[in-house]
Amino acid sequence: MRAQVERVVGSRIFETSEVHRRLLQYLAEKTLAGEGDRLKEFTVGLEAFGKPPTYDPKHDSIVRLQVGRLRQKLLAYYQSEGAGDPLVVTVPKGGFKLSIEEPPARNGDAAHASAWVSRHATVILGAALAAALLWAGVATTLLVPARRAAGVVARRWNPELESLWAPNVSTPCAGPSPPAKSWPGTRSPGRAKPVPLSWWPNCWPRASRISC
Fold first, then answer.
1. Contacts of 89 (CB under 8 A, 6+ apart)
2. How far is CA 41 from CA 22, 58, 98, 168, in A?
3. d(CA 162, CA 170)
4. Does residue 206 carry a pLDDT above 50?
5. Which of 59, 67, 110, 204 is the most buried (most CB within 10 A)?
6. Longest pairwise C-alpha distance within the chain
7. 68-89 average pLDDT score
């Protein structure tokens, strides 16, 4: 921590601020000595700012004000000169103990991660597009013959045929009903009776219309 603090106080951002250099070095020494958790605003005022024993933090906010400005300077340093530093020094709010940790991510790592995401997103989108095109081709292959068949049926069936077969297709299988239990290929009890040939044409028009 001490080496990193010296690097920070020697930067251009801190070179014009003696107050914040001394404050950061004081907080670093107290933190390294294990006294960071016990630091109070009154103690910092006496030891870091040379306040008299009569100092009252309730009426003099110099400690809170200067620690807030120190946080801003540290943030500005790590956004500029210290962007590549191996350690990050901060003063967490609510106390005076310094915190030192590794940076969350390097710019190079972030750029690499962004490029990786972009490449894989391109692959995924390309696969989705290929699947959509394949599905469109299959649907076209299946639908075109069906539409052609429907067009053939529509061309063959015209109003003249409709009027010609209308008397026969108005009701299904209109005309004389076959004898009971005398359907084609069956025998009625007792003597067999052939089905009249006149019965079949009554159903043929409907069958022929469906099969066109």
1. 1, 4, 5, 8, 24, 28, 74, 98, 99, 100
2. 16, 10, 14, 107
3. 10
4. no
5. 67
6. 136
7. 94
Residue with tokens 């030192």: 100
Q: What is the pTM of this model?
A: 0.51
Percentage of the chain modeled with pLDDT above 70: 50
Q: Where are the domains of the chain?
A: 2-101
Residues 120-162: tens digit of each pLDDT: 445 445 655 666 776 666 566 666 566 666 565 566 656 666 6
Q: For the beta carbon of residue 83, count every other beta carbon within 10 angstroms.
A: 11
Measured in whole angstroms, how far is the alpha carbon of residue 80 from the centre of its chain? 33
CB of 180 closer than 8 Å to CB of 188: yes
Please report, as a single letter, which amino acid is at residue 116.
Answer: W
How far apart are alpha carbons 35 and 26 in whole angstroms? 11
Cα–Cα distance list, 131 to 27, 72, 119, 137 (Å):
62, 53, 19, 10
Radius of gyration of the chain (CA): 47
Quick one: tokens of 19?
A: 């107050």
